[in-house]
Amino acid sequence: MSEALHKLGLVPFFTRQLAGLENPDKCLGRVMSVQRSNITVACETGEKIATLSPLLRDAAAVDRPTVGDWVVLDESLSRIEQVLERKSLFRRVGAGSNVEVQPIAANIDTLFIVTSCNEEFKESRLERYLALCAEAGAMPVIVLTKADLTDNVDSYTQRARSVQAGVPVEAVNALDATTLDNIRAWIDTTTTVALVGSSGVGKSTLLNALAGSALVATGDIREQDKKGRHTTTHRELHILPSGGLLIDVPGMRELRVADIGESIGTVFEDIEALAKHCHFGDCSHETEPGCAVLQAIAEDRLDGRRLLNYQKLQRESAQATATLAEKRATGRKFAKIVKEVKFYKKKKGGR
Once rounded to an integer, what is the mean pLDDT over residues 318-327? Predict the structure, then answer.
């Protein structure tokens, strides 16, 4: 393995997939950024701008290369022929009327879920990110920024720890390097970390602080509503001088979920543990008698907000999953019709 590929995070999980490939180092690369039709791939010999093979162009969005992917290029290093199997994938359902699953970042080891110690902080948003992180197969770390701007850091820390048991919480002031030591401890020489969170929470500032230089532009939040302005306009993978890699993800106004039923249970283990003691096995935790979950809320052992968000994520996931399944079924039916029409035309032309 070349030193250049090692710095890009190449580990045995990916090299094992290259068995039988001649000179794998020469044609292997990692996707550093995707901007519309321009895909930047870092290879042993430097960065290249690559296009997609016809097969990948026609593939579903989730199967096309995204930031963090390891890919195999053609001999000219200008076309991506194959995307290697991913060990993790952070994804979401498209915004608005788009129900297609969109890949956000691939092959991440740790997800820094970044939020601010101000009005931007929302437990429900953290729970949504944590459910998507569990589905992606990455290690979550909640990062509280702007710790220097509040006198209640401990309060924000306690609230962050309440959303999922055992998830590490780190409070930082990105402008003070001495507060970043705990964050750096999560980044090894081959570790890939993705920074996710709302606009204006300080992701780009944190990235620059960890890199020791201004890799990306930063901006301020609006004082009237504490909402941020978009400074990161696209996802990009950065190599840290001290080793390790960081992906800065733009703030997403919509973070829709699909097919994350099991992951929801990971985040809301307390609710699912209580549900086992409900009188009815199919209890919806709304009005049923003998509901252990509602009893826990009445006795202040469970936050009612938490139950509402649990139910909201379940409904959203089920609805989006059903829509995706219906779309796939329609697509298969259409493909079958096209195949039958082509067969008929071929048969008719052969007469």
Answer: 72
Q: Which residues form the domain of 281? A: 261-326
Whether 295 and 230 map to the same domain: the answer is: no
The CATH number for 274's domain is 1.10.40.50
335 membership: H or E segment, kind and range: helix 304-349
The answer to whether the beta carbons of residues 174 and 202 sit under 8 Å apart is: yes
pLDDT 10s digits, 119-141? 999 999 999 999 999 999 999 99
How far lies 188's CA from each of 169, 183, 238, 242, in Å? 18, 11, 14, 9
Q: Is the pLDDT of residue 221 over 60?
A: no
**What SS3 class is residue 281?**
coil
Range scoring the smallest mean pLDDT among 13-22, 75-84, 158-167? 13-22
Burial of 75 (0-12, 13-18, 19+ CB in 10 A): exposed
pLDDT at 339: 61
Number of structural domains (the chain) is 3
Contact 31, 40 (CB under 8 A): yes
